[in-house]
Specification:
Chain B: Pfam families: FAD-oxidase_C, FAD_binding_4. The structure holds two protein chains of two kinds. By secondary structure, chain A is an alpha+beta fold. Chain A contains eleven helices and 17 strands. Classes of the chains: A alpha+beta, B alpha+beta.
């Protein structure tokens, strides 16, 4: 599929006011508002366009799979530092459209979901250097570029990250890439959830090479990444028990194939890392140095939202049966002033409101 | 999208009405209206561009900010927000029909929290003051523009400021968690949060670097990071700038992301050395400063690798800082490069283009050609790690035509930056200075989108008007075309 074909499809939809549902591999069909609109399958617009290891960037078309991108990066000892999930195992939510090989670059950026390395390395948007966007009128727009620093014009390319396809098709994107750490090791500690949060914040304020944390069922895993000497020194300082299958475990956390994430409905609660435990049952996992906490089971939506908001965070209904998803907004509602701003921005990029309507908020 | 083109002139403001309305909402000591009081505000760090405002407001609390903005919105009066005025692109230059809104009195650090590694500060707090307040906890605020002693966090947010450590630690956009913003209509909203990934669009990314065109920030939550146990600098000299450029690429190719990676050419070291006595090799065509930080073990390991790479790239001399004092001395020359050049020339004009690192030698050769073409000298300092070049064009404002030559010289560097695959500004912002070059970097549809984004926040286009994003009329007048997606080749490229 060429970019011109994407442009033609969007122009036609704009003219006919036809809602479109943008789709890469469908690996995150479960995420956000209920799916609506005619499928615009972008998985055919694929391929790595440019990769320059010494310039630390890679550009690819939206349908390129993360697996392909990461394989090419690995040949040069580099990685996507935000460690995005591929969700290849559970990319079959919509049975009418079979899932492909796992997440695409376009879907990864649109969803803005990062993995275990998020707290140390940054979010998806932190690595976006530029995008070629096809907006809701079928205009091709280039924002950002391929250099590390660029403050000319508003930073639209980062705005697009996490916008769930509501502002345009990310036809092509350029990402900052980083070298893989030389050494990596995983330590395990037995401790309760509160103690895990306390320790993670205490360690986080120290110059330690932490790159991921995961607590589940009384066991805290801590990943150290960096120079071999730094990882060794930190291991001696922190104690804990060395694990043997660290790498596999982190993939299972990233992909949510770990048993901690098995139950539904699954709530994703982002909090200030130091927030005390919420008065909500069903805590099943803690990540990101205490800033990401997962809850599963039959939880009252209003109660978990109120608790998260009171603690300075927000709660997302992450994975749930359709019967619940049609009753509960996926994301924490916006304050009125912010909602009005969102609507105006949506109009800038998609005046006819045809792109992924309702996927982010029901109002647009 | 509506066709928004802010070419219609702002209507002349009735100064008397404006001043009497402002007097009603601000105490006397928070409002300046006399010419001699307004004079210090007529420019920012880019002194070649000046304009006198109608009034300067110095509010002391958020309520007053809201009142000032509401009043200006009602009267249709432009508002230019201002921090310390250290900006280098004229972003804080006043509007002749408008007011300057100085956030200088918003200078309190409201909270520093060790465990959550964050600080809540007012926008008028100086960049360095945040790190000083965090130091007792072993933490600091990572973005460190060279002006960090004076520049404010609010200004850093407006410009998305960088610094010498941003290759490893990121720009302002990577280190701000939350903003409290007042809209031109006087409405308060908060974006981002102390919790990661706030719901909705990433408005933080949009606001940071928006050069005061979208809203006025009244509070900022910044991320703090643990201070590394140790930092050391490797200083290497090269006989050839191309060799030094290759060494930068080789360091990255070896999988090293240094804490800082800076280059200075011979004219720059020559200007700096008598001033700072940093111990620079004055015979070298270029020197590289490469900082490594972390645990002592990590630093030792990285320094050894960096040394091997630099030797392999033909460095003629390599020195490693042996003490904190020596490390700071190595850096002092780089950080003082601008004032040092200021000592050897009556005036200098600092550019801020970014280019892919591998095009560095080409760019420096082209700049040497431009020195001959315009008959002006130029010293080059370079955030080599992230491709951000700061050529310092030396001129004399008192010589007729000299400034015009410097301006044309600068424009040529910026336009070549775009042609080489880079950007007209890496960290100083577009402001008023690079407004014409925006027409070269962006095509009409992107510029129209920027104007529409602006209108979504500020429909009457009163916040910092005529800055950052050029009107389409202005681009037409400038007559220089955006090279659209490489379909046209830069006609002069082969020469370089």
């Amino acid at each position: 599929m060429t970019r011109d074909e994407i442009v033609a499809a969007i122009r036609a939809a704009h003219a006919g006011r036809t809602p479109l549902r943008l789709r890469g591999a469908g690996s995150k069909d479960f995420y956000g508002g209920l799916l609506a609109g005619e499928v615009l399958d972008l998985s055919g617009h694929r391929g790595i366009v440019a990769y320059e290891p010494t310039e630390l960037y890679l550009s690819a078309k939206c349908g390129t799979s993360l697996a392909e991108i990461e394989a090419v990066l690995a040949e040069h000892g580099q990685m996507l530092a935000f460690e995005p999930p591929h969700f290849s195992a559970n990319a079959t939510v919509d049975r009418q459209i079979p899932a492909k090989t796992g997440a695409t670059l376009g879907g990864c950026l649109a969803a803005g979901l990062a993995g275990p390395r998020r707290m140390q390395a940054g979010a998806v948007r932190d690595f976006v250097l530029g995008v070629t966007l096809v907006d809701g009128r079928g205009q091709v727009l280039d924002f950002g570029g391929r250099v590390m620093k660029n403050v000319a014009g508003y930073d639209v390319s980062r705005l697009i990250a996490g916008s769930l396809g509501t502002l345009g098709v990310i036809a092509e994107a350029t990402l900052k890439v980083l070298p893989k750490p030389v050494a990596e090791t995983t330590l395990a500690f037995a401790c309760a959830a509160d103690e895990a949060v306390r320790r993670l914040n205490d360690w986080g304020a120290q110059p330690l090479p932490l790159s991921a944390a995961f607590w589940h069922d009384g066991r805290l895993l801590l990943r150290l990444s960096g120079a071999a000497a730094a990882v060794d020194a930190a291991r001696r300082r922190l104690g804990g028990e060395l694990t043997v299958d660290g790498e596999k475990t982190w993939i299972s956390v990233r992909e949510q194939t770990h048993p901690a994430f098995a139950a539904t409905p699954l709530w994703r609660v982002a909090l200030p890392s130091t927030a005390p435990a919420l008065a909500v049952d069903g805590l099943c996992a803690i990540e990101w140095g205490g800033a990401l906490r997962w809850y599963a089971g039959d939880i009252d939506a209003a109660a978990i939202r109120a608790a998260a908001t009171a603690a300075g965070g927000h709660a997302t209904l992450y994975r749930a049966p359709e019967s619940l998803r049609c009753r509960v907004d996926p994301f924490t509602p916006l304050a009125p002033a912010l909602l009005a701003l969102h609507r105006r921005l949506k109009k800038v990029f998609d005046p006819a409101g045809i792109l992924n309507p309702g996927r982010l908020y029901a109002e647009f | 999208m509506s066709q928004v083109d802010p070419s219609d002139a702002i209507v002349a403001t009735d100064r008397k009405t404006l001043v009497s309305r402002l007097r009603a909402i601000l105490p006397a000591h928070c409002l300046l209206v006399e010419d001699e009081d307004l004079r210090p505000y007529e420019c920012d760090g880019l002194t070649a561009y000046r304009e006198m405002p109608l009034a300067v407001c110095l509010p002391e609390n958020e309520g007053q900010v809201v009142d000032v903005l509401r009043t200006c919105h009602q009267l249709g009066v432009p508002v230019v927000a201002r921090g310390a005025g250290t900006g280098l692109s004229g972003g804080a230059m006043p509007h002749a029909e408008g007011v300057v809104l100085s956030l200088a009195r918003f200078n309190r650090i409201l909270k520093v929290d060790r465990d959550s590694r964050s600080a809540v500060v007012q926008p008028g707090v100086r960049n360095l003051a945040v790190s000083e307040a965090a130091a007792p906890y072993g933490l600091y605020y990572a973005p460190d523009p060279s002006s960090q002693i004076a520049c404010t966090i609010g200004g850093n947010v407006a410009e998305n400021s960088g610094g010498v450590h941003c290759l490893k630690y990121g720009l302002t956009v990577h280190n701000v968690l939350r903003l409290r913003v007042v809209s031109i209509e006087g409405e308060i909203f908060e974006i981002g949060s102390a919790a990661p990934d706030a719901p909705g669009y990433d408005l933080l990314a949009l606001l940071i670097g928006s050069e005061g065109l979208l809203g006025v920030v009244t509070e900022v939550t910044v991320k703090l990071v643990p201070k590394p146990e140790l930092a050391q600098v490797v200083m290497a000299s090269f006989d050839d700038v191309a060799q030094a450029g290759d060494a930068v690429a080789a360091i990255i190719a070896a999988g090293i992301i240094p804490a800082g990676l800076e280059m200075m050419d011979k004219p720059a070291t020559a200007a700096v050395e008598p001033f700072v006595k940093a111990g620079y090799d004055l015979d070298a065509a270029a020197i590289l400063l490469c900082e490594s930080d972390g645990t002592p073990e990590e630093v030792a390991e990285e320094i050894a690798r960096v040394r091997a790479v630099l030797t392999g790239c033909g460095a003629r001399d390599i020195r490693v800082s042996q003490s904190e004092a020596e490390r700071l001395r190595f850096w002092a020359g780089r950080k003082a490069a601008f004032p040092a050049v200021g000592r050897i020339t009556p005036d200098y004009y600092c550019m801020d283009g970014t280019i892919p690192r591998k095009r560095l030698a080409e760019m420096l050769a082209a700049i040497a050609g431009m020195e001959r073409k315009y008959g002006l000298r130029c010293a080059n300092v370079f955030h080599a790690g992230d491709g951000n070049l700061h050529p310092l064009i030396m001129y004399d404002m008192s010589l007729p035509g000299d400034w015009e030559k410097a301006e044309a010289f600068g424009a040529e560097i910026l336009e070549l930056s775009v042609a080489l695959g880079g950007s007209i500004t890496g960290e100083h912002g577009v402001g008023i200075e690079k407004i014409k070059q925006m027409c070269v970097q962006y095509a009409t549809p992107e510029l129209e989108t920027f104007h529409a984004v602006k209108a979504a926040f500020d429909e009457k286009r009163l916040l910092n008007p005529e800055k950052a994003v050029p009107s389409l009329h202005r681009c037409a007048e400038y007559g220089r075309m955006h090279v659209h997606r490489g379909e046209l080749k830069f006609p002069d490229l082969e020469r370089f």
